[in-house]
Design brief:
Elements (H helix, E strand, L loop, with lengths): L16 H27 L6 H22 L2 E6 L8 E4 L6 H6 L5 E5 L8 H7 L3 E3 L4 H16 L4 E3 L19 H7 L3 E9 L11 H10 L3 E7 L11 H19 L1
Parallel strand pairs: 1-7, 2-5, 2-6, 3-4, 3-5
Antiparallel strand pairs: 6-7
Helix pairs in contact: 1-2, 1-7, 6-8
């Protein structure tokens, strides 16, 4: 079975395979046009520097995320206060869609696994859009991420992190790694808890799922919904350590996820 034939697995209701394949093909073409347009916008940023460049890249990413959700037929149900300045956004991790869902709400700098950087077309575009990549278990990579996150926060941008370190089916929240919580605590940046959920639940991307069939399945789906809840900011300085702050943030995210159910 080809990837396009597998694309019907996420459909909300039975429909002819030809319609599913046509929908997927149309969306693939539209995404190609969107990627070309985005590349042209990014080229115009050459010559800008510092805070202005970081802000503009985050704005382009926001527009790209909104367009990507629209092209995939994903309705967004979002509630909660958006941060008005630098903050550490910490979310449960369910799918490769998560950064797009959050970035569609506000300009931010997502942190992603290094695997994404190796994806054809997508990886290079994500890097140009300001995404910071981390190789799990690599101390030098971790240090670069800390520096990149600190620079983004200093530029006045929220940083989006998934401190579980891996994706889940969205039924629970794994323990949070303390990672960036130390920077937030040392610099006094607020922590904003974020919970994400999808309908249908098959949009979760976990385990050994291959990306291409999963993505084509989404591209063939008539409609889908992403729900997101943002909680009240957590004052980092009120907690005695990064580990304590991570536990408090996880508890808030778990509570928001329970509300989504």
């Amino acid at each position: 079975m080809s990837p396009l034939e597998q694309a019907g697995v996420l459909c909300a209701a039975p429909e002819p395979a030809r319609e599913r394949l046509t929908r997927a093909g149309t969306r693939v073409a539209q995404l190609g046009v969107a990627a070309f347009t985005t590349t042209r916008r990014l080229r115009k940023l050459r010559g800008t520097s510092g805070r202005d460049e970081a802000r503009e890249r985050a704005l382009v990413l926001r527009d790209v995320a909104r367009r990507a959700l629209e092209l995939h037929g994903i309705e967004l149900d979002a509630k909660g206060p958006l941060p008005l300045g630098p903050a550490l956004l910490v979310a449960n991790h369910v799918s490769w869609l998560d950064p797009l869902v959050v970035a569609s709400l506000l300009p931010c700098v997502p942190i992603s696994k290094l695997d994404l950087a190796r994806w054809p077309v997508v990886g290079g575009l994500a890097r140009d859009l300001g995404v910071v990549f981390v190789a799990r278990g690599d101390a030098r990579s971790g240090l670069r991420v800390l520096r990149g996150a600190e620079a983004a926060l200093a530029d006045g941008l929220p940083v989006l992190n998934f401190p579980e370190g891996t994706t889940t089916a969205g039924e629970t929240v794994l323990p949070f790694r303390k990672g960036l919580f130390g920077i937030a605590r040392a610099r006094g940046f607020p922590i904003v808890p974020v919970a994400i959920s999808y309908d249908p639940p098959e949009l979760a991307w976990v385990g050994n799922d291959a990306f291409l069939p999963h993505w084509l399945g989404l591209a063939a789906t008539r409609r889908a919904r992403a729900s997101i809840r943002l909680g009240a900011p957590i004052a980092a300085a009120a907690h005695g350590s990064a580990a304590e702050l991570a536990r408090a943030a996880r508890s808030e995210v778990a509570g928001l996820l329970e509300e989504l159910r």
